UniProtKB/TrEMBL annotation:
This is APC family permease. Keywords: Membrane, Transmembrane, Transmembrane helix. It holds the Pfam family AA_permease. It is found in: Membrane. It is a multi-pass membrane protein. Its main location: membrane.
Length: 503
């Protein structure tokens, strides 16, 4: 074989490179996976966007909403950790649900993951360019940006990540590794300084239900949980992780624990710093102010601290879209490789990046953003899209938990009962309680999020029936191996092994 040829592609293989080659293996280290996950959670962007929106409901209990969300997601990461141990896959959650529940729930999971990550790609630039930056310009520069400013800026916030994504995984991971580390250090250090300088009368009051009750904290958790949605965005990089194939999945679990710990600590302490820095008795005004987070940083850290927050927040939004586009594109790639979606998504370009999938994600996110932004306005569009993201996330994670429980239902050891059965049940219960508190009673415009999610879910179930109903699709055995490339070829999945049934 020519030394310059791909080790996965035979010289006699008549297929073009885009079909014969797969994703490039052995590229992403464990810290690269951690940075992808951190970038997907976009901590600095959360501080200026999600915390501002969440404070409208949680008020002084904003830190409690973030603490509960952190604990809930830590319980949920248990499921990701155990399901990913033995399978490094471009399908991520799609592959994990396939292992326990089979093909039909796996396909629904994949569509839900694509849904909530794609909607998040649309929502973040709407807020940053439609609410945060105009408020900043008006308050600090005396400049009123045009009402349509968010539209071209959304193209920028999605276009730059698209370009990096199609250039391959190397530049993508390098960009995220540098900025993710900087964000975590900046948020923790600056928050400690703010807390040390603030006049705190009742230090534990932000961690009580006294002011807003359970419903206020739960509504704040919508935005707090959504701040963590990218915790599993590194899972679809399993096939590109370093190490032997049997160990790639273990890196996914370790990276999830590391990234969630770092971001959870940074966001919880940041929420507390903003609350005590703004003034606990004044939190009703926090979400109504223009860029309140910047105001707190300016007051306690001066112009340098405020400018650093703004710059890192803008970069964080870019990296968030980059991480989620990278992740979503690989899920589409894996599902299409199994012939369950448009097969053109299962191709790579010369940089071994799934360019067709990335382009679809970017283009669709722009369309979704434009529809909701023009219809509801940037502020309400962000609230609705963020709530829709939570619905999709809870649906996918519920199926993940059920998959782990199904795999482990015969186990009798106490430790396995705790990690494989008890914790998944607790996570599902808490997720659905938060959703219930969010939408009952139905109040518009947030109710549009539930309708949006329900329409997509119905479409996902219908598509699953079309592709897998009536005996179509993979055999029962192969249905538990979806999204996983074989050891001999990155594209030789179940449909290449004679395990596919046609009507």
């Amino acid at each position: 074989m020519d030394s310059n040829s791909s080790p996965h592609v035979s010289q006699e293989d008549p297929r073009p490179l885009s079909q014969a080659a797969g994703l490039q293996s052995g590229i992403v280290s464990v810290w690269g996976l951690v940075s992808q996950s951190i970038a997907g959670m976009a901590p600095t962007c959360d501080v200026v966007a999600f915390m501002t929106a969440g404070a409208a409901f949680a008020l002084v209990a904003l830190p409690l909403s973030y603490l509960f969300a952190f604990v809930l997601m830590f319980i949920e990461v248990n499921t990701l950790y155990h399901l990913s141990k033995h399978r490094g896959s471009a399908g991520g959650y799609y592959s994990y649900v396939s292992a326990g529940l089979g093909a039909k729930p796996a396909l629904v999971t994949a569509i839900m993951v694509v849904f909530y990550q794609l909607v998040s790609v649309a929502g973040v630039p709407i807020y940053v360019a439609g609410v945060f930056l105009p408020g900043l310009a008006r308050s600090y520069l005396g400049v009123t940006l045009p009402a349509w400013f968010w539209i071209p800026m959304m193209l920028v916030f999605i276009g730059i990540p698209w370009l990096l994504s199609v250039l391959g995984i190397r530049p993508t991971v390098k960009a995220m590794l540098l900025t993710s580390s900087l964000e975590i250090v900046f948020l923790i250090v600056s928050s400690i300084v703010i807390i040390s300088r603030a006049h705190i009368v009742a230090p534990l009051h932000p961690f009580t239900f006294a002011t807003v009750g359970i419903k206020g904290v739960a509504l704040g958790m919508i935005f707090a949980i959504t701040s963590f949605i990218g915790v599993g965005s590194h899972a679809p990089l399993g096939e590109e992780a370093k190490g032997v194939r049997t160990q790639q999945g273990r890196l996914i679990g370790k990276a999830a624990i590391l990234s969630l710990t770092l971001v959870g600590v940074a966001l919880t302490i940041s929420a507390y710093a903003l609350t005590v820095g703004w003034g606990q008795t004044r939190m009703a005004l926090f979400s109504k102010a223009a860029a309140p987070g910047v105001q707190v940083f300016l007051h306690y850290l001066g112009p340098i601290g405020a400018v650093a927050l703004v710059v890192l927040a803008i970069n964080s939004a870019l990296m968030d879209d980059l991480a989620l586009m990278t992740s979503t594109a690989r899920v589409l790639y894996a599902v299409s490789r199994d012939k369950l979606l448009q097969t053109s998504f299962a191709t790579v370009n010369g940089k071994r990046a799934p360019a067709a999938s990335v382009t679809f994600v970017g283009a669709t996110a722009i369309i979704v953003g434009l529809i909701f932004g023009l219809w509801l306005g940037p502020a309400q569009a962000f609230d609705v899209l963020t709530t829709a993201v939570l619905f999709g996330l809870v649906t996918a994670h519920t199926l993940m938990n059920l998959s782990l429980m199904r795999i482990s239902y015969r186990e009798r050891r106490l430790t396995q009962l705790v990690f494989h059965l008890a914790l998944p049940v607790i996570a599902m219960g808490l997720f659905w309680i938060v959703l219930y508190e969010t939408v009952v009673p139905l109040v518009f415009p947030l109710a549009w999020a539930a309708i949006f999610w329900l329409l997509v879910l119905i479409g996902a179930v219908a598509w699953t029936y079309v592709k897998l109903g009536g005996g179509r699709g993979p055999s029962d055995k192969a249905g538990h191996e979806l999204g996983v490339a074989t050891d001999t070829s990155p594209v030789e999945t179940i449909n290449k092994l004679g395990l596919w049934r046609e009507t």
